[in-house]
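Q: My collaborator sent me two sequences in one message, no labels, and asked for predicted structures for both. Can we handle them in order? The first one she listed is below.
A: Yes, handling them in the order given. First sequence, followed by its structure tokens:
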Amino acid sequence: MERSGTGVEPPTPHPSTEGSPEAPRRRMAVRAVRAGAGGGLVVVGVVLLFLPGPGWLTIAAGLVLLSEDVPVARRLEHRVRARLPTDEQERVRLWVPVLSISLAVVATAASLWWTFLR
């Protein structure tokens, strides 16, 4: 089935959503969850910039979720990823998130111990 004179076939809908009345509602629910989780991660990441924790990494994770739907988040995601240390293949090195999360957990545990248990 070709469009008139373009030689391009229209995209075929996925078989599980073809003709489904719930498909638009499901897409909106997925977008809402993605936006809520992404926005939450960005807010937590900004807080972690001032507290011990992986702030830039958390912001990057939030922007990745938001970049599916928000063009501004896509541009910001590229800026944040440029600040993260990467290897030769432009991937974030494994030790960066592992060390960041470990330090955040230790610092939080030490802070809680110092505040409530000493």
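Q: And the one she listed second?
A: Here it is, processed independently of the first:
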Amino acid sequence: MDVILLAREVKADWVLIDEKLARRVAKGLGLKVKGTLGLLLIACRTGLVSKEEARATARELASGLLGFLIPRPLAAGFPLVPSPWGEG
């Protein structure tokens, strides 16, 4: 929850959180929330990583080996899914 307090203190544009409860709390406080896949999507759209690299990373995250709980169907379509925050 420290990230939420810090985001409010510095008036951050958005906050990076993956945990479901913390995301709900942050949204309830009016913060814009992005997760790991959202950050990966930004990196892909801005050319920091290629679509192939983004897809491979999403698949690796969905494998569960890194401790993430990303649904496989979401990872399979990545980065072709629409932006969760309405950009592009």
